């Protein structure tokens, strides 16, 4: 049975590119390491800021709690969210995943992403820009 994304039929020029990267990616909240991975993928989506995804297995399961929050993307599917608890407080709905992604984005299954304007993202030891996911300035 097909689980094709409805968005691509409506917007045939739209692209969601998923590329494996050979880097070490760490996600931190202050001094708390939330995730540490050498298996991330970079997702570049039409007119969106790039987003890093990493395997859920590379996240510290002891500090995450699933929430009831859910959103829908016509290209990737339904997203589920988690709150991260640290010594400095909770970061609500800061991590998400497409548990059953559409066929075109199956590579994202069992991968998670973070609102990088709310956590620090370290790529090969260098802290990345704190730009959250979403539309770029040029939505034309």
What does this entry look like structurally?
Helix content is 4%, strand content 46%. It is mainly beta and 140 residues long. The strands form two sheets. It has a seven-stranded antiparallel sheet with strand order 1-4-5-9-8-7-6, with no helix packed on it.
Summarize the structure.
The chain has 140 residues and is mainly beta. 4% of the residues lie in helices and 46% in strands. The chain has 1 helix and 11 strands, in the order αβββββββββββ.
Question: Helix and strand string, N-terminal first?
Answer: HEEEEEEEEEEE
Share of β-strand residues: over 45%
Shape: globular
The overall pLDDT, averaged over residues, is: 91
What strand line-up does the widest sheet have? 1-4-5-9-8-7-6
**Cα-based radius of gyration, to the nearest Å:** 15 Å
CATH class: Mainly Beta
**Termini Cα gap:** 35 Å
State the CATH topology.
Metal Binding Protein, Guanine Nucleotide Exchange Factor, Chain A
Sheet/helix structural class: mainly beta
Q: What's the CATH superfamily, by name?
A: Domain of unknown function (DUF427)
List the helices and strands and how they pair.
Elements: H1 6-10, E1 16-20, E2 25-29, E3 32-37, E4 41-45, E5 51-55, E6 64-73, E7 77-86, E8 89-97, E9 111-114, E10 120-123, E11 126-127
Antiparallel strand pairs: 1-4, 2-3, 2-10, 4-5, 5-9, 6-7, 7-8, 8-9, 10-11
């Amino acid at each position: 049975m097909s689980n094709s994304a409805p968005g691509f039929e409506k917007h045939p020029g739209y692209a969601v590119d998923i590329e494996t990267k050979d880097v070490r990616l760490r996600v931190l909240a202050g001094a708390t390491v939330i995730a540490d991975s050498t298996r991330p993928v970079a997702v570049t989506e039409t007119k969106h800021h790039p987003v890093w995804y990493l395997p859920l297995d590379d996240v510290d399961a002891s500090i995450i709690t699933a929430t009831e929050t859910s959103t829908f993307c016509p290209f990737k599917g339904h997203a589920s969210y988690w709150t991260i608890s640290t010594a400095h407080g909770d970061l609500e709905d800061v991590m998400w995943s497409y548990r059953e992604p559409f066929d075109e984005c199956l590579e994202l299954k069992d991968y998670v992403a973070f609102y990088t304007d709310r956590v620090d993202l370290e790529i090969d030891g260098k802290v990345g820009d704190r730009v959250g996911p979403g539309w770029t300035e040029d939505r034309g």
